[in-house]
């Protein structure tokens, strides 16, 4: 388990009243968990393990005094329905990952406490009023701030100095992605990089965008954090390798997957395996 994940998710327990621990024999508390990703995603299970361990630190034991109700939703068009299902169960708390899933829950309830993680722009997304005073029924952790979009462009230029065009793969309807794109565009101009924004919603749109962009030389990719890019990470990685495009990813596990794919591809080429 990564220390950072543990520190983040252990705070979930603080959302449940400590006074309730003394009354835990009265009934089993229900916590909803909405994850906008596949259950088989490599980063998913370690985070859930951290959630369980964090709850245990505060005396909340799954199967004894709490019940975790999971909804894993890799399809964007299923998020709203899953949010509605969880709210209908009337849990004590809902833990949610990603901007789209948090937005879906906020549309379903203004009373059940919501704790969000891996959210890029909670203010722009309308989840909270301010960082110091969230207000409403939602609070949580912002894992990026808008200027990181410019850093991703700078990293791309540093890693691949010959790049003069950058395809930014994002979900334009998500406020955080729009903010990242704005920062990326501002940083690209002094570096002599042309930014091309590709708003995508599925694997087919990703493939079309990358194939079209790769037709001209001097290109590189910047992948924004969003469930659509997370779920389709393998598609993006394979296309980047096929078209020989240097790429900057928002998370380490995506970059590691890219290195693994590249090593396997090279082995296949050299040894014909």
Write the layout of secondary structure elements.
Layout: H1 3-10, E1 29-35, H2 44-57, E2 66-72, H3 79-88, E3 93-97, H4 99-108, E4 114-119, E5 138-142, H5 148-159, E6 165-170, H6 175-188, E7 194-199, H7 203-213, E8 219-223, H8 227-231, H9 233-242, E9 247-248, H10 252-271
Helix pairs in contact: 1-2, 3-4, 5-6, 7-9, 9-10
Structure report:
This protein has helices spanning 3-10, 44-57, 79-88, 99-108, 148-159, 175-188, 203-213, 227-231, 233-242, 252-271; strands at 29-35, 66-72, 93-97, 114-119, 138-142, 165-170, 194-199, 219-223, 247-248. It has 273 residues and is of the alpha/beta class. The chain folds into two domains: 3-142, Rossmann fold; 148-271, Response regulator (Rossmann fold). The protein has a five-stranded parallel β-sheet, covered by helices on one side. A four-stranded parallel β-sheet has the order 7-6-8-9, with helices on both faces. Helix 2 links the parallel strand 1 and strand 2 (66-72). Helix 3 packs across helix 4 (99-108) and helix 9 (233-242) crosses helix 10 (252-271). It is elongated and about 65 Å long. Residues 1-8, 18-24 and 259-273 have low confidence and may be disordered.
């Amino acid at each position: 388990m990564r220390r950072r994940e543990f520190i983040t998710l252990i705070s979930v327990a603080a959302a449940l009243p400590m006074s309730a621990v003394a009354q835990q024999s009265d009934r089993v508390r229900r916590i909803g968990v909405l994850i906008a990703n596949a259950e088989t995603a490599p980063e998913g299970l370690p985070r859930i393990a951290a959630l369980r361990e964090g709850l245990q630190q505060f005396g909340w034991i799954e199967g004894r005094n709490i019940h975790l109700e999971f909804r894993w939703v890799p399809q964007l068009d299923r998020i709203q329905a899953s949010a509605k299902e969880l709210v209908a169960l009337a849990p004590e708390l809902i833990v949610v990952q990603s901007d789209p899933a948090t937005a879906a829950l906020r549309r379903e309830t203004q009373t059940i406490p919501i704790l969000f993680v891996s959210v890029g722009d909670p203010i722009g997304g309308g989840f909270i009023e301010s960082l110091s005073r969230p207000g409403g029924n939602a609070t949580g952790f912002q894992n990026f701030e808008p200027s990181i979009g410019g850093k991703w462009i700078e990293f791309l230029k540093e890693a691949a100095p010959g790049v003069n065009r950058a395809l930014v793969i994002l979900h334009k309807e998500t406020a955080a992605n729009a903010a990242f794109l704005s920062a990326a565009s501002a940083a690209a101009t002094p570096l002599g990089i042309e930014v091309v924004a590709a708003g995508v919603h599925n694997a087919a749109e990703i493939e079309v965008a990358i194939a079209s962009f790769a037709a001209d030389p001097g290109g590189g990719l910047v992948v924004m954090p969003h469930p659509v890019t997370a779920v389709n990470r393998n598609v993006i990685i394979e296309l980047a390798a096929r078209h020989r495009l240097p790429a900057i990813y928002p998370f380490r596990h995506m970059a590691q997957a890219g290195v693994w794919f590249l090593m396997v591809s090279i082995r296949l080429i050299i040894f014909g395996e």
